[in-house]
Design brief:
Blueprint (H helix, E strand, L loop, with lengths): L2 E8 L5 E2 L13 E11 L6 H6 L5 E7 L1
Antiparallel strand pairs: 1-2, 1-3, 3-4
């Protein structure tokens, strides 16, 4: 069951956005407060979960966005 969070997640690249209405990763304004799960990626080139989620940059990402 998804929960509402104080932080938003970008619907385009899954980046968790702490403040503001623009994703710092892809500059999208399509953000959601409804997301579930979190992954912190340090070395995306070596991370199997990052590859499966299509993550190419270091950062904090939502696993699922509703």
């Amino acid at each position: 069951m998804a929960r509402r969070h104080l932080r938003k997640a970008c619907r385009v690249c899954r980046t968790i956005v702490d403040r503001g209405g623009v994703c710092p990763n892809c500059n999208s304004t399509d953000l959601s407060m409804k997301w579930d799960g979190i992954i912190m990626v340090i070395r995306p080139e070596e991370s199997r979960p990052a590859k499966e989620l299509g993550i190419e940059k270091e950062g904090t990402y939502a696993i699922r966005i509703l």
